[in-house]
Amino acid sequence: MGAQDLRKAVIFDLYGTLIDIQTDEQEPWIYGVLAQYLSYYSVRITAEELRKEYQIEIRMALGQSGQAHADIDVYNIFRSIMRRYGKSGPGRNEVMSAAMLFRSLSRKRFGVFQGVYDSLARLSRNYRLAVVSDAQWVFTDPEMEMLGLTRFFRTRILSSRFGYRKPDTRLFEEALKRLWVRPEDSVYIGDNADRDLKGSKGAGMKCLLFRSGSGPYDGLKPDGRFSDYSELEKLVETLLP
To answer: What is the pTM of this model?
Structure first.
């Protein structure tokens, strides 16, 4: 392939597509541990207060958004709680450490799907790569780094930085703009038809679904499906010849 081929892009969803993850934020003990940790930053809050405040703050942020597919910024949620229950305003590092502890306590399963690294290495030689994901930057930035994914994706569009989620086409359009790639010269890889297929098709992109059922997809048709990353490169080459 020549230099002109790098004007084509493969854009990925993250969680459920590249990263195999399971979380549970409902476990009561998580809030007990986190409340105890916050006391070291002079934040006086009980486990039950923390659990309730976290849920209330999320509902308020979503309700005030005005976006059809609203998203929140968890960093702002924790900063607000720590400010109200602390003696002084928390620093950025304090808020981030609290948010990351919360995430680490709620994680049940975490790793990349088999074959991801080899597939990304091969694709990166011939295509521009990016991530468009419904994700919290305060969790996702360090998680991509610890899994060794950051080196593949200089362009990362995370919904929490924009205030809206997929299938809002603006997230996909922002990635294409940063990559200097036309929609018809790109393919999106996701695992959720409602968000990934609908959003990418709405932006004029091709779409491949990972480990997704055969449909129906509300009238939309993916350009292909795959269940193993060893299959991906040939599918992409067919769609972006």
So the answer is: 0.95
